[in-house]
Write a structure and sequence with these properties.
By secondary structure, the protein is mainly alpha-helical. It has helices spanning about 1-25, 25-30, 40-65, 70-95, 95-120, 125-130, 130-150. It has a single domain (about 1-150), classed as Ferritin. It contains 7 helices and no strands.
């Protein structure tokens, strides 16, 4: 049962993330923006997000399986995932960088809150979210830089 839950969460999270990305491709608009010197190459985003979505799904499954003991942790997982999926259509689909920045900063806060809560009872889930927190912090800086430069 646990293996099935883990598989479903990982597959579901990866599929949702990929769908959000494919439905809201950056395109010419993003290519035309002035970018900061630390902007990664475009090819890097897909592999990084795929790995992160696997980690997010794994932590989500663990939180789901312990939701009756620690409902707040799973609640935070849901909040961060909704914010994660909302950022792409707002930033790329609607081309709204400022609302995108608001969403990604809320996402970063939710990811950090998840880590803070999970570290008390599920150190593995907290650790799975550390690379995610680092990437979202970097993406927040990138989002803010794009606003500043454009």
């Amino acid at each position: 049962m646990k293996t099935l839950v883990h598989a479903l969460f990982i597959i579901g999270v990866v599929a949702a993330g990929l769908a959000a990305g494919f439905l809201n491709m950056p395109g010419e608009w993003y290519a035309s923006l002035a970018k900061p010197p630390f902007n990664p190459p475009n090819w890097l985003f897909g592999p990084v997000w795929t790995v992160l979505y696997v980690l997010i799904g794994w932590a989500g499954a663990r939180s789901f399986l312990r939701r009756s003991e620690y409902p707040g942790t799973f609640g935070l997982w849901i909040v961060q995932f909704v914010l994660n999926i909302c950022w792409t259509p707002v930033f790329f689909g609607m081309r709204n960088m400022v609302p995108g920045l608001v969403i990604i900063l809320l996402l970063l806060a939710a990811v950090l809150a998840f880590i803070g809560r999970a570290r008390h009872h599920d150190r593995l889930s907290a650790a799975l979210f550390v690379p995610y927190a680092l990437w979202v912090a970097f993406a927040s800086l990138l989002n803010a830089s794009l606003i500043y430069l454009n």
